[in-house]
Amino acid sequence: MKRITRAVAVAAALALAAAACNANDKSTSGAGSTAAAEQGGTFHILTTSKEISLDPAKSQNLGISSIHLVLRGLTSWKTSPDKAAELVPDLATDTGQVSDGGKTWTYKLKPGLKYADGSPIVAADIKYGIERSFAPELSGGLGYHKSLLVGGDKYTGPYKGGELASVETPDDTTIVFKLNKPYGDWPWVASMPAFSPVPKKADTDPAHYGEKPVASGPYQVKSYAPGSKLELERNPNWDKSTDQARTGLPDSIVLDMGLQPNVVNQRLIADAGDDKFAATTGTSVPASLIPTVNGNPAVKARVATSPAGALEYLAMNTKRPALANPAVRKAIEYAVDKQAVQVAEGGPEFGGEIASTLITPGIPGYNKFDLYQAPPAGDPEKAKQMLAAAGVSNLNLVLVADNSTGLDVAQAIQQGLKRAGITVQIKPLDSEPLTDLITGNKPDFDLTVSSWLPDFPSAIGNIQPLFASSEIGNGGYNISRYSNPAVDSGIAAATAETDRDKAAGLWAALDKQILQDAPVVPLVYARNAFLHGSKVQNFYLSSYPPYPNQLIIGLSK
User: Fold this and answer.
1) Torsion, Cα of 229, 230, 233, 237 (10° steps)
2) pTM higher than 0.85 for the full model?
3) Cα angle value 60/64/70 (rounded, 5°)
4) Deepest of 8, 122, 236, 342, by most Cβ within 10 A of its Cβ?
């Protein structure tokens, strides 16, 4: 899961990710006609990233991002404009066979799979790829499997720790995972970069493996110049008939690197030369360019917006004396001016839809409800009455905010609470000290604004990291310090449920149960808005993931 700042719209963490009521006709805004996409051409991705690693052990990228053009996994994502990503088999024949009450997952590989050099892809390569993700030298990747696989808490990778016994490969086409607890979302975990095959014989220089990994997807690295360009060419041994997730339409893909955000957007607005065949996948349209975009229908037609995206929310530190009383927190639910927050983020069209739930649109388990039913601009009089009933007066709170990206929203919240008689002092901090404070063990603050995007489309990503007692302090993101044993039990039950429909129902119930305790105020479901060139097709953003699916993009002539 990702804590993100709205200003970068996850661009920093998900620069390669495909890493938000819509005025532009729902999520198909800016999406090229599928029928117009043709085989061939060179697709350009304009990115602010100065370095790019395609090492699966180091990657946190979503399942629709650039790294998955080069590397396949056991499972993958299939998207459409109007619903969340669907899990599909990739190298495996299905999305996993579960046994032992949800603690054992077995996969069989499809026959005839090959790397770019023609050698066969075997189960031992996937096992080795997973094992190397545990190596301290290759840190930074997603870590779900590390805490779930038996013995993963002590394993240190293949370079010093030998093999991980809980990943079994009884033959070349079978791989078995032994988990330490039931985990219904394991098939989503198996789509993450660490589950890409890495032949042990090719891992001669682990620190530089990501510069030219052994390709299993439709493309392989042709050249890489850090800070300048990454060029991908076709993998001649990729078999489209085995791949439900990727179209492999362009002949080549070029990532133009190290660009300033404004340069990215200005080039795409101009739509000249190669930029007609270009797009950005992580640099959202900034507020300063919204008038330019809206003022030109031809440009506006090339903006893809997501119906929703990350949840932006106000966290209330429930361990602070002033906020320990749920009645006070519920009063703040009514006092917050969500409409002002929405305006600060770019308005309804670009900023996002006003939020009232913890599970976000596009995630199974999302049910639209509004427990407090406050007007969009808040209900300060009701908030005053609730505070008076609770015997609270002269409430003074400290709101810590990111000094480069969060002050406009902080001020919108400050003004809304002021109308309810609540004084808010804004304390600006740089991003790193802010994160250290709110996730640390000495949380000297009352309020903070944060945003959160799950790593895969399951409501576990909306609920567990933000509200489980285990995630308080020590770098965890339960920044409201919310602790409820009944909720913890509910999280455990939903996590263990292998029936996805039943799990979604359990998560939905937790959404309402947590909000009844009011540890946070949902603010907006943040929209993303990305420009693309006039010749780029199949470019759209869904509610989740709120990024373009790079695996299906094609070009027209």
Assistant:
1) 170
2) yes
3) 80
4) 342
CA-to-CA separations, 183 to 166, 319, 495, in angstroms, rounded: 15, 31, 6
In 430-539, DSSP assigns E strands to: 447-453, 520-526, 529-531, 536-537
User: What whole-number distance in Å separates Cα of residue 216 and Cα of residue 117?
Assistant: 10
CA dist 90 and 76 (Å) reads 5
Please, is 24 exposed, middle or buried when counting C-beta atoms within 10 Å of its C-beta (0-12, 13-18, 19+)?
middle
**Predicted confidence pLDDT, tens digits, the chain (557 residues):** 554 443 333 333 333 333 322 222 233 343 434 448 999 999 999 999 999 999 999 999 999 999 999 999 999 999 998 888 999 999 999 999 999 999 999 999 999 999 999 999 999 999 999 999 999 999 899 999 999 999 999 999 999 989 999 999 999 999 999 999 999 999 999 999 999 999 999 999 999 999 999 999 999 999 999 999 999 999 999 999 999 999 999 999 999 999 999 999 999 999 999 999 999 998 889 888 989 999 999 999 999 999 999 999 999 999 999 999 999 999 999 999 999 999 999 899 889 999 999 999 999 999 999 999 999 999 999 999 999 999 999 999 999 999 988 999 999 999 999 999 999 999 999 999 999 999 999 999 999 999 999 999 999 999 999 999 999 999 999 999 999 999 999 999 999 999 999 999 999 999 999 999 999 999 999 999 999 999 999 999 999 999 999 999 999 98
Instruction: Say if CB 188 and CB 220 are below 8 A apart.
Output: no
Nearest partner of 304 among 90, 87, 13, 547, judged by Cα: 547
User: CB neighbours (10 Å) of residue 484?
Assistant: 19
How far, in Å, are 33, 55, 210, 357, 545 from residue 205 at the CA level? 43, 11, 10, 47, 34
Contacts of 483 (CB under 8 A, 6+ apart): 318, 469, 472
CA distance 254 to 53: 14
End-to-end CA distance of the chain: 38
Cβ–Cβ < 8 Å for 345, 526:
yes
Nearest-Å Rg of the Cα atoms of the chain is 23
Please state the length of the chain: 557
Q: Other CB atoms closer than 10 Å to residue 259's CB: what's the count?
A: 18
Report the alpha-carbon angle 543-451-479, nearest 5.
Answer: 140
* Sign of CA pseudo-dihedral 225, 231, 237, 240: positive
d(CA 490, CA 481): 17
Residue whose token pair is 């507020």: 287
Task: Sort 214 into a burial class: Cβ within 10 Å, 0-12 / 13-18 / 19+.
Answer: buried
- What is the 3-state secondary structure of 380-422? HHHHHHHHHHCCCCCCEEEEEEECCCCHHHHHHHHHHHHHCCC
Dihedral angle sign, alpha carbons of residues 179, 180, 181, 183: negative
